[in-house]
Design brief:
single chain, mainly alpha, 12 helices, 81% helix, globular
């Protein structure tokens, strides 16, 4: 991975780590439904503008809505609408740092979904990773003061279901890509955002904003929609094209670091020993489940084989 792609990776981790900060700021005022509808609509419009520019340059990725509308709805439900709503719900109670670390359990859920969906074997390494990840989550949440807040247990469950939803979306995307009707990555992002916005829209009438937004709240909403969804997708797909999906997934290990950092800097959240140890255990478990090896390990292995 060259310097430019390394900078993109760090920038992506910082942006996605910041999404939990912005949700923690805006969710208590706007509520999950209104906040996420703003986020999805802004992301969809931003990606539409990007798609228009790409089209002018002859690099467009047509949506083909008539052909792929069901695909966009399924992907939008599990990759955006449902997890975003659940994270926003949990953000009213949990800290940004806890949200960021719990989100890192998505690859572990992916191993379980893959075992059921694609009949993939769970190896001893993966099983150990799942156990460590579970222990890390228990340590992180059990010793954190947010666990004492009313509704904290339900918020933790909602966050873990959100991470589980991401794993379903990932497995579905792999299955769709393997078929003859595969959709281009940018079209997946663009089309699923519009589909997600349509899915969440009816909820706004039933769950209006509980408070009046300020300029700061709307700034957080704008950052969530444009930066954490629109711009982040562009960086992510660029990384996949340049270094491959496996290397791009290392953002999973960096995002919690930034989530904890932003929470401490801007929301004055406490970083206790349980935060560091629990986060480390979760990330080690994730590494075992995904088969991730640091770059120096890969280099050492290649050298030994020569």
């Amino acid at each position: 991975m060259n310097t430019a792609n390394m900078l993109r990776l760090v920038a992506l981790a910082a942006i996605w780590g910041g999404s939990f900060l912005f949700m923690r700021i805006a969710a208590p005022v706007l509520g999950p439904a209104v906040l996420i509808e703003y986020r999805l609509a802004l992301a969809a419009v931003f990606l539409a503008l990007v798609g228009w520019v790409l089209h002018l340059r002859g690099r467009g990725a047509p949506l083909n809505v008539r052909r792929h509308w069901k695909h966009y709805l399924i992907l939008g439900l599990f990759n955006s609408a449902l997890p975003f709503l659940l994270f926003a719900f949990a953000a009213r109670t949990l800290s940004a740092s806890v949200l960021a670390v719990l989100n890192a359990t998505a690859p572990m859920w992916g191993a379980l979904v893959g075992a059921v969906w694609a009949r993939q074997t769970i190896t001893g390494r993966s099983a150990l990773g799942l156990l460590l990840g579970t222990a890390g989550v228990a340590l992180l949440v059990g010793f954190d003061h947010v666990a004492e807040r009313p509704g904290a247990g339900l918020a933790v469950v909602a966050t873990l279901i959100a991470a589980f939803s991401y794993s379903i979306a990932s497995q579905y995307t792999k299955s769709a890509a393997a078929s003859k009707n595969g959709v281009a990555p940018f079209a997946n992002a663009h089309g699923s955002m519009w589909a997600s916005a349509l899915l969440v829209l009816p909820l706004v009438a039933f769950f209006p904003a509980p408070g009046e937004p300020t300029v700061g709240i709307m700034g957080a909403v704008l950052a969530l929609g444009v930066a954490c969804s629109g711009v982040a997708y562009i960086i992510y797909f660029k990384l996949i094209a340049d270094v491959g999906a496996t290397s791009a997934l290392t953002v999973t290990f960096l995002s919690p670091v930034f989530g904890i950092l932003w929470g401490a800097l801007f929301l004055h959240e406490t970083i206790g020993w349980h935060t560091i140890v629990g986060s480390a255990i979760v990330l080690i478990g994730t590494a075992l489940v995904t088969g991730f090896k640091p770059a120096w390990r890969r280099v050492a292995t290649s050298s030994a084989m020569k």
